[in-house]
Write a structure and sequence with these properties.
heterodimer, A: 250 residues, mainly alpha, 8 helices, 2 strands, 67% helix, 2% strand, B: mainly alpha, F1FO ATP Synthase, 0% strand
Chain lengths: 250, 75
């Protein structure tokens, strides 16, 4: 039996496509899961913290912990001035975290395994950094590309490298999240396919199938770690890029 | 050479690049652990730097994986 590891990333329409004068409006499984994520985050942050208990319950603890966690990250890597971007970073973190975690549930859809979605998120961060950098610092923002204390002779080369590394930021920012999710889910699928193949081979295969099954369990635990880590990496890189916009002088 | 065979060979060669990223990530976490054992009180403050270095290093390996995936499924 063959298992297609790419099948899980296919986007299909949940309802028939509506045609509005040449423009097609579709509601896909990707859109459905994004709505589930937004609903889930809202339920956690608004619903669970609504009682405002002095001694928090379980859900309120999760909400408060995630708030404190992201707030500390923003404060330590973008400074107190970066705290005005806290809602932005927190929204990104919670969206990516929920997308990654919901994607781990079997038969669900991982929104962050679509490059278009991570690219949209990363480009938003990039445009915010560039826009806020120029708005706040004016042309001093370009100091970002001219490090202090570099000998005059190699300065042009350094400037070119700095500009290139700045421009490639949205690429690496989006591809990191996308490729991690994609590779992790393909690996899970391939090992799950081994179970089916071995189990189909007869009674001896059943015993052999225990090995890939144990591997799938271990990989799922690893993916849980990766899901959280990549959301954190996405948030902390956003903070570091915002820090460049706030303090461009290195 | 058969184009399909060349595609699969190319994807395999592209994955070699991930070995370098593996070495780099190992160096980062190994050095962090060594430093954290010497001075555990300072370890917590460097966790952000650890993750940042890990992310930057990992991105390079991910790029080579991306080339492999593009060869296999994209082009």
């Amino acid at each position: 039996m063959q298992v297609d590891p790419i099948h899980q990333f296919q986007i299909h329409n949940m309802v028939p496509v509506i045609d509005l004068g040449g423009r097609q409006i579709a509601f896909t499984n990707s859109a459905l899961f994004m709505m589930i994520i937004v609903f889930g985050v809202s339920a956690l942050m608004i619903g669970a913290s609504a009682p405002r208990a002095v001694v928090p319950g379980r859900l309120q603890s999760i909400a408060e912990l995630s708030y404190e966690f992201v707030a500390n990250t923003v404060r330590s890597s973008a400074g107190t001035e970066g705290m005005k971007f806290f809602p932005f970073v927190f929204t990104l973190f919670m969206f990516v975290l929920f997308a990654n975690l919901i994607g781990l549930i079997p038969y669900s859809f991982t929104v962050t395994s679509q490059i278009i979605i991570t690219a949209a998120l990363a480009l938003t961060v990039f445009l915010v950094v560039v826009g806020y950098g120029f708005w706040r610092n004016g042309l001093h923002f370009l100091n970002l590309f001219v490090p202090k204390g570099v000998p005059k002779a190699i300065l042009p080369a350094i400037v070119i490298i700095e500009v290139l590394s700045f421009v490639s930021r949205p690429v690496s920012h989006s591809v990191r999240l996308f490729a991690n999710m994609l590779a992790g889910h393909i690996t899970l699928q391939v090992f799950a396919g081994f179970i089916i193949m071995l189990a189909g081979a007869g009674i001896l295969g059943w015993f052999g199938a225990v090995l890939p099954f144990a591997m799938v369990v271990a990989l799922t635990a690893l993916e849980l770690l990766v899901a959280f880590l990549q959301a954190y990496v996405f948030a902390i890189l956003t903070c570091i890029y915002l820090n460049d916009a706030i303090h461009p002088g290195h | 050479m058969d184009p399909t065979a060349a595609k699969y060979i190319g994807a395999g060669i592209a994955c070699i690049g991930m070995g370098g990223a593996g070495v780099g990530v190992g160096i980062i976490f190994g050095n962090y652990l060594a430093a954290a054992l010497r001075n555990p009180s300072a370890a917590q403050g460097q966790f952000g730097n650890l993750i940042f270095g890990f992310a930057i290093t990992e991105a390079l390996g991910i790029f080579s994986l991306l080339i492999a995936l593009l060869l296999l499924f994209g082009l």
